[in-house]
């Protein structure tokens, strides 16, 4: 009898689509591979070189991920900037210049009229040769809406036709993939190409979405594709997930120019398994990605983001009160957004609306563009809006937000004292209030459409507007009532006490925290954005308050809510299981169910096993000594069985339907003229995880979370009783929480 499995068979040990990986088995296989390489390295110089290259391959992979992610992020930033300006006009000197680069060296541009530039032509100047009057306004309005609709139509069409997985932010799916789930094609080359192109189109269309979340998906696609260049990562799903955790860090690093924030984001928000080695590699990948983006310099300001600011005025202890109020607002907005957005997305999934993604995107784009054009704060890109709101007014600022009275009566250099608001500030306040209402409402309907859509920037915009409004209010209060008890101890007349831009920054952090429930990574990202170490306490106060308020109104962040909505098999590590059920209450089969389908170790033929495989859909089968004893021997995966039997029929002479399959170490001598036997011990897992029938479910849930199990066998006095799969655990948790257990869609 041949043991044909001494040679590895292609496909054995791999997984089907929409299945969970076996973390324990993958880690064990990697340890075996590493042990073999280490032992061989002592035998020859070539084996030693192979051992060194294997150890170095992880760092090389991180370098490549950083370079590719940074390059793609730079390309996306430059293209989106140019196409956003294309809606308003073109540069007559060179079509490829955006507005800012077109007017870079113009002699006619002043601080007051920075938009007046002979080289830049609006659409009304091109089409009807004038920029004045109602007709010119209508032409510009029409072209703005037309370009927005064209960009949105191209984005949704490309996603629908070429890569359906390129829609959304991608973070809920990446969290699920990192927990061990397999979604084939989600991180493939087509998804990467289409997501990169459509992300530029979606951002340029003026919809209320950001590119930051999708950049994490883009970076993870880069990581997954580059993994195929290295055997170590191509063949091991657990090792690949370590790489994807580092790629997620690189994605946030280029999205916000925050390498340390990216590493903490990966650790706090997306990663399921994050060993110390992955922390170092994430740090290196984020560093390389940020360096690459800095070299490209997409915004021309030597910064990694458009809204980098520096504040110089220290904050006062009393200001913690408005900062905490912003935290409360952020928590309320976060909870409101999650509830309404999930309700809308559920309606999209369960009604006819979901069948017409192109029409939905075009309708939302048309409404957004029509409402956005009349208001300068909604017309500009959301990143530019945040940049303007974060900005601390200086002497040379011509923005309406800086239109204060007696602006130039100062001898303090560029720092201006608190001063009465002029007509421009009051006008800007009204426009910002309208912008706030529009952003709050339209973002609910935008996030989750069939185009790439991030949530970081719209959430930050909502908070930054609320913060700037409160900041200007506080500034005017301090100016007119500096003799009040709350102000007179630290704010004298003519001093620069309140910084409205700081309030905008704290508000942005609060709203982003309320929606995503990030805390540590959020604060680090925000201070890396602004370079203001002294503002960590206000940011921490706002982020913590927003999380507490949002958690009081609903436990889930937006990504966890979307994971549950889509029915992904994700076991949340942060949630406690507090019910007193036992393993026997959850295991299959139940009391009145048919008996558990098992294989015996030495009495089943190839035909018997093939019949069981064709009649059931289980992803694996327990192997027992005999049906009478039900003593457990091990566990074998369905996919491994199918591949091994097919391979044996092709390559091993004498294997027929009546051949007996042996899972034992030694097979008994067979009488002459009997069919050849088939030995499949090598695909048998001899150490499946088992619990007794009286094990509390809180321990079982903990085991599934911490070991990343696919299934766990239940025994009683050593006899096999049943099986608990990850899906059973998730259904049980849903049932205990009075939710629909059938919402868990996948194995």
From TrEMBL:
**UniProt keyword Chaperone present:** no
Q: Where are the transmembrane segments?
A: 56-76, 134-156, 190-209, 243-267, 317-338, 358-375, 428-448, 455-474, 502-527
Primary location class: membrane
Please report the record's description of how this protein sits within the membrane: Multi-pass membrane protein
Pfam families, per this entry? CBS, Voltage_CLC
GO-annotated cellular components: early endosome; endosome membrane; Golgi membrane; plasma membrane; synaptic vesicle
| Start and end residues of each CBS domain | 587-651, 683-743
Per UniProt, the keywords (alphabetical) are:
Antiport, ATP-binding, CBS domain, Cell membrane, Chloride, Endosome, Golgi apparatus, Ion transport, Membrane, Nucleotide-binding, Repeat, Transmembrane, Transmembrane helix, Transport, Ubl conjugation
Stretch forming the signal peptide:
none
InterPro entries, from UniProt?
A: CBS_dom (IPR000644), CBS_dom_sf (IPR046342), Cl-channel_core (IPR014743), Cl_channel-5 (IPR002247), ClC (IPR001807)
Q: Which chemical reaction does it catalyze? A: 2 chloride(in) + H(+)(out) = 2 chloride(out) + H(+)(in)
Q: Name one GO molecular function term.
A: antiporter activity
Task: Provide the protein's localization.
Answer: Cell membrane; Endosome membrane; Golgi apparatus membrane; Membrane
* UniProt key word Acyltransferase: no
Task: State the family named in the UniProt similarity comment for this chain.
Answer: Belongs to the chloride channel (TC 2.A.49) family. ClC-5/CLCN5 subfamily.
Q: How does it assemble?
A: Interacts with NEDD4 and NEDD4L.
- Function as written in the Swiss-Prot or TrEMBL entry: Proton-coupled chloride transporter. Functions as antiport system and exchanges chloride ions against protons. Important for normal acidification of the endosome lumen. May play an important role in renal tubular function. The CLC channel family contains both chloride channels and proton-coupled anion transporters that exchange chloride or another anion for protons. The absence of conserved gating glutamate residues is typical for family members that function as channels.
What name does UniProt use for this protein? Chloride channel protein
Q: Which organism is it from?
A: Phyllostomus discolor (pale spear-nosed bat)
Q: What is the lineage of its organism?
A: Eukaryota, Metazoa, Chordata, Craniata, Vertebrata
